[in-house]
Amino acid sequence: MQGNWPWLVPLASVLVAMFAGSLGNFTEKNLVDRLMTGYRTDARPVKNSSVPVRVTINVALAQLLDVNDRDQQITGIMWMRLYWTDEYLVWDPDDYRGLAAVRMQGSSIWRPDIVLYNGILQNGFAQLPDTKVTVTSNGTVFYYYPFTFKASCKINVIDFPYDTQRCPFKFGSWTFDALAIDVIIESSEGDLDQYRKNGEWDVVRFSAQRNVVSYSSSDVPYADVTFTLVIERQPLFYIYHIFAPCIVILLISLLSFNIPPDSGEKLSLSITMLLSLIVYMHMVVASLPATSNYIPMIGLFFGVIILVVSMSTILSILTIALNFTNMDTKPPLWLKQKLGMTEVWRWFDCVFCGCVRPVGEHQQESYRGRETHQRAEYGSAEETAMLPLRQINFEDPSDNGNHICELFDDSEDLLPPLHGVINKLEAWKRDQLTQKKEEVVLNEWKEVASRLDRVFLLVFIAACVLVSCTMTYVIA
After folding, report:
1. Is residue 430 helix, strand or coil?
2. Which residues are CB-contacts of 407 (< 8 A; sequence separation ≥ 6)?
3. Which residue from 22, 149, 314, 347 has the highest number of Cβ atoms inside 10 Å of its Cβ?
4. Which range in 228-232, 254-258, 467-471 is most confidently predicted, on average pLDDT?
């Protein structure tokens, strides 16, 4: 018998543990049964009806899912934490073997109807989730539950994409005033310890503030706790995918002023760049709210860029028209002086390097002087043709260098054919002079167009620098 005692000790320990466990379960069941006996979920848990139930609110932001600029909505995940004291859920832990807390179904006890005032509800009405609540022996109730919120938030995109938004979340009782349910805040700051960062938005601040408001329909005060989420947009996505391509398109459109008007691609390049900017603008506008109260900064940016490219397109059309003009009159002198086409402004050609230099007026004077000298020396064509043919010497190549002069007395027979040849030569000469004058005028207009292209290029480069500096200053 004495050898069997060591086996009885473990057996007795197991029996005691099993009995203690069954007693613990029986004790918790008895406690819940006692607490729920005669309990009413539709009555405030206070024994003095003039005393308000103080509900402490604390919210933890877990994740920011989406900020819809166009619909002015914000979506995310929050962890709701509510604390209050239920005077009918009190017991002595010593009476229940030290049991200090129990977990009960939330729908079995009274819960404050704390709702998000500016929430966008999928079912059209607010509904508290039926999750477990923790009740302690002194009557303190801990009501924790996660929820995905969708709330309205006024999005101000005037500084887009360098904007900062303030989204308030107003929590309070929907039916009880501050004399029945008084909501208070646990801390002046919301909980961001478990927050997961968003790829587009940075959380700057998550503050809390208690407000007491009397609405117009009643003078009874209503208490609420407003959590204000301050978020700042990260602009890298828009800089890389929107701003940088637009700047490249702008530079390419400005370089169209360097394309010769004769190439035929000058106007098509400008129009293509203009259409590309409009497509990019529509991509951005599709995500912005439709409002007439203000113009976003990115809208001003696109407006200025499109205006610059439109003006460059219009001026390209002007230079093409001047290049292919068929005017009979020369460019005005004041325009030629402004563009450095006269001899006085010849030093200004360094700015217009690469531009066409047509036949100048000094060359035209040399042509006219040469013609006058020939007329003075040889006379007119008719006089030259009427010279006595007897004075014309013909050299016979078979005469071993001897010059034989033959006189023709019947030279009048050759005059009619010579007159026809002379008339044709004179007509051809006049046509050549007219064509040369037209070419001189056309070349001058081509040079005007080429130099105007260079002037427009310099002007629009300065405009682009001014726009970039202005936008940088506004952003800063």
Report:
1. helix
2. 389, 390
3. 149
4. 228-232
Q: What is the pLDDT of residues 147-193, one digit of tens each?
A: 999 999 998 888 888 889 999 999 999 889 899 999 999 889 999 99
| Strands, sheet with 53-68, edge to edge from the N-terminal-most edge strand | 101-105, 132-136, 140-152, 73-85, 53-68, 181-185
Cα(206)–Cα(191) distance, rounded to whole angstroms? 8
Given the DSSP bridges, would you call strands 181-185 and 53-68 parallel, antiparallel or unpaired? parallel
Q: Residue 381 pLDDT more than 50? A: no
472 residue type, one letter: T
Residue 361 reports pLDDT greater than 50: no
Instruction: Compute and round to an integer the Cα radius of gyration of the chain.
Output: 49
Residue 146: which residues within 8 A CB-CB, separation 6 or more?
62, 77, 78, 79, 80
Determine the 3-state secondary structure of 229 from DSSP.
strand
- Model pTM greater than 0.85? no
What would the two tokens of residue 108 be?
Answer: 């079995």
Amino acid occupying residue 226: T
Is the pLDDT at 414 greater than 60, yes or no?
no
Q: How far is 163 from 167, CA to CA, in rounded Å? A: 13
Which DSSP symbol is given to 243?
I
Q: What separation in angstroms does the CA of 285 have from each of 146, 173, 281, 475?
A: 35, 39, 6, 19
Query: Peptide bond before 161: cis, by omega within 30 degrees of 0?
Result: yes
Q: Is 103 helix (H, G, I), strand (E, B) or coil?
A: strand
Other C-beta atoms within 10 Å of 139: how many?
15
Lowest mean pLDDT of 22-26, 141-145, 266-270, 416-420, name the range. Answer: 22-26
CA dist 96 → 27, 188, 309 (Å): 6, 38, 83
The answer to whether 147 touches 78, Cβ cutoff 8 Å, is yes
Opening angle at CA 331, ends 329 and 335, nearest 5? 155
8 Å CB contact between 174 and 306: no
What are the tokens at 198? 């968003």
Tokens of 320: 């093409």
pLDDT computed for residue 168 by the predictor: 95
What is the phi/psi pair of residue 93, to 5°? -60, -25
Per-residue pLDDT band at 52 (split at 50, 70, 90): very high
Contacts of 340 (CB under 8 A, 6+ apart): 346, 347, 348, 349, 351, 352, 451
CA distance 288 to 282: 10
Identify which of 313, 337, 57 has the alpha carbon closest to the alpha carbon of residue 170.
57
**Where does 119-235 have alpha helices with state H?**
none
Between 122 and 390, residue with greater pLDDT: 122
